[in-house]
Amino acid sequence: MSSIWKWIVVTAILCLVQEASCTYQCGKGITPKIYSECKMLPSLGASFAWTFNRSAYSMDFAFTEDLEDPSGWVAWGINPDGAQMVGTQALAAFSNTSGVYTMRTYNVTGPVKNNERLLVPGTVSVNYSNYSVVVVQTTVTIAGTVLLKSGQSTSLNLVWNRGPQVQTTTSALMSHSVSNNENLMSTLRFDVGTGESMGGGEIPNKRLKDIHGIINAISWGILLPIGLLAARYLRPFNFADPAWFYIHAFCQITGYAGGTAGWILGLRLQKLANPIKYYHRNLGIAVWALATLQILAATLLRPKPKTKGRPLWNVIHHTLGFLIVILGVVNIFEGIDLLGVENWKRVYITILICIGLVAVVLELINWFFWMQKKERRHKHSVLVGDT
Questions:
Q1: Is pTM beyond 0.85 here?
Q2: Quick one: which residues bind heme b (predicted)?
Q3: Per-residue pLDDT reduced to its tens digit, 171-185
């Protein structure tokens, strides 16, 4: 009998020394099951442990998060449609009327997000199984298994949140806080096969930010460069005069007007921002201020051709124009990074490459005609000298 007790004592000591062999801990979550990976999630102090089984094409998981209130709820789920709230197929844990923690499945729809309908239990399209909940004080761990569909990508959109209250009669989850950015950013897209994160988070005021980004990208990032190309590469050709000037003026004035509208919208978004993105804001103010100076100088301070001050004005005007375009493009990429839309970045890079290729072709054409013109002048000077 004494040998049995010795074995128990030794085992207990080994468990204390090497806790992972007896329990598994990821963040605040402690589970009897051991997982191969652990990840701290980017908001609400949540953590996620998982093991991906390639042969069964399934994932064992344990999600952990603190309750906001003892009578509240904690939920986690997968969204097949994207890293967003609407479309999430969720598992939620909460205390029932008997004080026992239970779990239900929920399908988050658009009317639920818009507070037009309560989030009540329902069937979900994600194949969850063997799910359970463990609560230690105020820390909730939701564990279970997800069976992925054949051919489904291992890149999953995880969505999680917590709220202060549950409607006891219907098990409806009452809305979470919308004033806390962490509640609005509690999504993550990552590959359960590699553990690589690919961003996430629902962006507050996303519609306004999308409009702001599109207007500024077209204005500062497309129209202004095209107007610059027209002035630089079409002006030397007699057949393009005065068309080059009208193209240049139209692109610059239209780009400035659109950029001003986008800038004003940016000031509005700044009041809603938390935290304020100072680098993006300050660079935007600088671009708009320089463009305003450029417009005023071009309309009010431009000397007449062949006057004494015109060469200096040309140098300042050209330098300022290039500076505005460069800073504008830099700030567009900064804004795209803030929005986290990689497809926008790819599209804009493609547009810039096209503009760049056109510039290279026009540059070569200008050099060709310049060399021809130089050669003709040289031949003319030789002929004049011979006579």
A1: no
A2: 212, 248, 280, 317
A3: 888 887 665 666 767
